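Q: Two folds, back to back.
A: First:
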Amino acid sequence: MSLNENQKLIENREFSNLDWKNEYQLDLVFRNCKISSSDFTNSNLDDVEFVSCDILNCDFSDASMRNAIFKNCTLYDKSNQKGCDFQKSDLRHSQFRNCDISTCNFYRSEVFGIVINECHAQGCNFELAEFTTVVSKNIFFSSAQLTKSNFMYSDFEGVHLQSC
């Protein structure tokens, strides 16, 4: 699927096996869509917004998704017991609000300033995810809002969350 310059809102559509590797699409809004088994690796989807979408078995590895918003979305495929892959992606200042992100993989992702609020986040992998930004050699800040969410069985190994 390719979009023309004026097509920023995508509503009530179903997509399967999308190949969006290396795509550059900014400010897109997906509303009431179902996206499954799709590849977004290495894409630039900064400021993308997903509202009331089912996003199942999708790969966002190495994607830039700064300021992305996921609201009322399901990213966990119950039938396969598998979440989406955000490994090594840039999710700085992104938001997950009232979503099911269970078993999603955030391994080594940039997540400074991330908001995860009122989410099912069981079994997520945040191993070595970067919740910090470096100001100088000895000064760094951590930033995250992880509130009202269930992180049972999630892996935060190697993560620094000072003063969050």
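A: Second:
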Amino acid sequence: MATEAPFPEQEYQDRYQRAQALMERDGLDALVISERNNYWYFSGLISYQLDHIQRPQICFLPKKGKPTLLVYGNDKAKAKALPWIAGVRAYVDVPFPQEMIADTLKEMGLGEAKLGFELGEDQRLGFPANYLLRLTEALPKAKIEDGTGALTEMRLIKSPEEIKCMRKACDISVQAYDRCLPQLKPGMTRREIADRLYISMIEEGAHPRHPGFLMLNSSTRYDDRRYNKGDRMVADFGACYEGYYGDITRMAIFGEPTADHKKDHETACDVIQLCFESMQPGTPIAELSRVANRELLKRGYQSVDSPKRIGHGIGMARAEPPSLNEVETEIHRPGMILALEPKVRSEKSAVHLEEDVLITEKGPEFLTNGCRVLRVIT
């Protein structure tokens, strides 16, 4: 049967080679992967069973060879169709048979291995933490280690295939906003505007089950509050395409913009451009906040309090490492995709714009565009 994986086999083989080199670096014999996005990343099995907390899905990736999957029974046939997977073990239904984790590891020759789990910052297990206690009882000679170093590094640097998907997600996001804006008018509610923007993302190509995300004026409460003339709408949103997100923020004014509206908007655009020019390969990410603060203070706006970030990585999650703040230790590296969103705050207002940036060997590249135009809704 045909696979439902978003990428060709070579993409997954390349991921395994990278991960296995990182396991060698970190002294691990295998990664045990269960968080939804990590599982999708390594398995290629885009299973919505992961929305059911009672039905864990686990990928066991050894330092040598192909991975084995432990899946809910309904996914068994789809898992077996993946040529980059060595073996598939399936369980019938809830309750999840915890003993299958230890049994699978023993069958793979990993009963006494150093096992990397999702235990560190920016990581989450896809099963209850007490499973680990029972695993140590079942495999007393195995060592439970933190696999965060390898997992974070893998997701931090995007492959050419991932970049293609993220270009598409960014394009959909920008085009959806352009499609949605002419439908809006003063007096509309947040609920009505949220509906139209979500529908626009789907119409432009976002997945109908996970079209993306949306915050209007820093809120996800889509209620009956109305936008009236003189109000500013700040839409922080992004489309999801093949499991990868765009993330942009746009500002529009209902009625004619005031001088303050124009000034805030121009400042946000200028700060984004200055930060963008600083995002050169090999330069510290921590420097971006300093660049932003120098410009904000020069123009009479409030600085960003450390360690408040002015952006973040994006990918299979709408916010991933690294954080664009003064305490980040990473440097800009080719293959990173970063959402850049320095806030512009004064005693009277707080707004921000956001663009997505790809770091290439030659320098930064905007994956989104258009925030420079202050849109007016009449």
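Q: And?
A: The first helix runs from residue 9 to 26.
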